[in-house]
Amino acid sequence: VLHSPGTAREVGLCLRLAKRYGGDMAKAARTWIEPACGTGRYVRALAARGCQAVGVDLAEPMIEYARQRTRAASESRGSATFLVGDMTELDKVAGRGKFDAAMNLINSIRHLTSDKDLDRHLASTAASLKTGGVYIIGLSVALYGYESPTEDQWTGTRGRMTVSQLIQYEPPTATRGASARVERVYSHITATSPSGSREFVSSYALRCYSRKQWLDAIERSPLRLLAVVDESGKEIDIPTLGYGIYILRKP
After folding, report:
1. How far apart are CA 248 and CA 31, in angstroms?
2. Whole-Å CA distances, 104 to 37, 68, 73, 148, 185
């Protein structure tokens, strides 16, 4: 309910970026994989545009929900497939050399808890791509010691239901140890319908990367950085702080 209105726009941007930056094998951008797909909204939107799309998530309830939503949806021109699996073993779960493109937006990659897991993820994603395939990653980089707590708020309506979400972000305050790379996120969701209101409160951790730490991880991987763009698709300098969309390609 909260994020469906922006899904088509985000998927349209990823399709354009894949065609703009992909090699010969990726220009058609027909086969896609999304690690950490969650509810599968991006995968279903890709299928609606005629793509063969696969979503992978470690949470079985998420995958079952995504499958149910796909079965309930109207016919798509493409296909949406959902698999339970770890995004550090993407090629083992979904196959090697099968995909034109991969996507991972809105900091989902930061759910990985160590540099080792990030390295395994980038390597397995590269193995799942065809030569020339692209990996589109949306990620916010940190500037340690210069960030203050922030918050975002969203509201969405579908039929007679209204959903609002307040998210608060607490950057790391420690300078040493594991907690120096951890941002705490607190989520408070209220869903209101004629039958009443329900509240969902949760918190989770996201791993932090400075500009250098993130670029070093890309350099260690089998992928190569082609460009960084903003949410409109305009090329930008690599951020020192904040969100960017990174286009990586398998040579």
Report:
1. 16
2. 8, 22, 23, 26, 19
List per-residue pLDDT tens for the chain, 251 residues long: 888 878 999 999 999 999 999 876 656 789 999 999 999 999 999 999 999 999 999 999 999 999 998 887 766 689 999 999 999 999 999 999 999 999 999 999 999 999 999 999 999 999 999 999 999 999 999 999 999 999 999 999 999 999 999 999 999 998 888 899 999 999 999 999 999 999 999 999 999 999 999 999 999 999 999 999 999 999 999 999 999 999 999 99
Read off the tokens for 235.
Answer: 């090329």
- Within the chain, where are the H helices? 4-21, 41-48, 60-72, 90-94, 115-128, 211-220
Listed residue (42, 69, 61, 39) closest to 53, CA to CA: 42
Question: Which residues are CB-neighbours of 149 under 8 A, at least 6 positions away?
Answer: 168, 169, 170, 171
Q: Which helix (H) or strand (E) holds 169?
A: strand 161-170
Q: Which residues make Cβ contacts (< 8 Å) with residue 91, sequence separation at least 6?
A: 124, 125, 127, 128
CA-to-CA distance for 181 and 178, rounded, in angstroms?
Answer: 6
For residue 171, list its beta bridge partners. Answer: none
- φ and ψ of 192, to 5 deg: -120, 130
- DSSP-based three-state secondary structure for 30: coil
* Look-up of token digits 């941007």: 13
